[in-house]
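Problem statement: downstream parser choked on a complex file, so we are re-checking the raw output for the fe (ii) ion run. The parser issue turned out to be on our end (a line-ending mismatch), but while we're here, posting the original submission so the record is complete.
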Amino acid sequence: MAEISSFVAQLHSSLPDLGVSPIYSNKFSQIFLDQHHVDSYSASDDEIPTVDYSLLLSDDSDQKLIALEYLRRACQEYGFFYLVNHTIPDKVFDCVLNEVSDFFDPTTIEDRKIYCKRGSPDKIRWDLNSSAEENREYLKIVSHPEYHVPSNPSNLSKSLEEYSKEMRKIVGGLARAVSKTLGFEEAYIEKAFNLNSGFDVMAMNLYPPNSRSKSAVGIPEHTDPGFVVTLMQDVNGGLQILSHKGKWINVYIPSRGILIQLGDHLEILTNGKYKSHIHRVIVDNNKVQRFSVVTLHGPSLDKIVSPGIEFVDDENPQKYCGKTYKDSLEANGGHLIDVESSLQQLRLA
Ligand SMILES: O=C(O)CCC(=O)C(=O)O
Ligand SMILES: [Fe+2]
């Protein structure tokens, strides 16, 4: 145990290295940065922590302790990290990549337009934005508690359903691990968000190469609601996250890895201890097309989320008001499937 404490202490003292083992370096980047991209959207290649999921589940209690401490620091000091050695089979990962790529076939764009509704009960929504504010085609589906997907093509439906089930297992594992990093019983987050009935929205985002976009912006700056956001992609390039030090960092996800970003509602629950971070997609520097599959894993719609009493005291007064997840998603007049952030409105002065 003494050995572990000293290891954890060592880990603690080596803050700048929290990043990662060198094998996850930027060699995975498949997008070629344009030397001439507009400076205002430039970002640094600072490393982002890599969390090994298998170690969080390790039977070796010492190893698990170290992994949890690493996760705690990744949550508190970054708020986003890469997840590797997770349990999604390669086959499931690769099928999603193939099916999503086929779905976005430019010759079938007319077929996709049938999902271009804008009603409040939309469970599937397609859109194409090509403007100064946003350059992306997307398909959004509500994937939990009920699973909705276009019936056509049928392979896409099957692959995404499997992927969604596998990803929910990982998010359950993360909820248990994150609860422990906060010093609570494993079920703390599951109960606080009622994740078993959690409202999940999956977005397939396609970004054109810069030559075909109307501006440098793929998606403008935002944070996402929910517990965590999971993201997989075909190629690296364009996604940038604003660190707590106010520095934009380029995201380079290791091959078959997943990017995890903490959501607004974890920030609310922890009264600001674990924060959601602003991110954006810049297409200005990508010379090739890119797509991502992003899932916002939320609390159940009827769950009121407010700061846990354990996070509030004289030194840390309550920073957010409580609201049901449904009301917080609709606070800006948006529809549930828009999964818009309302963190600003929920902040107490
Ligand atoms: O596609 C990406 O890289 C990010 C997408 C995103 O931030 C979102 O869908 O909320
Ligand atoms: Fe996002």
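For whoever reads this later: The CA atoms of residues 158 and 347 lie 40 Å apart.
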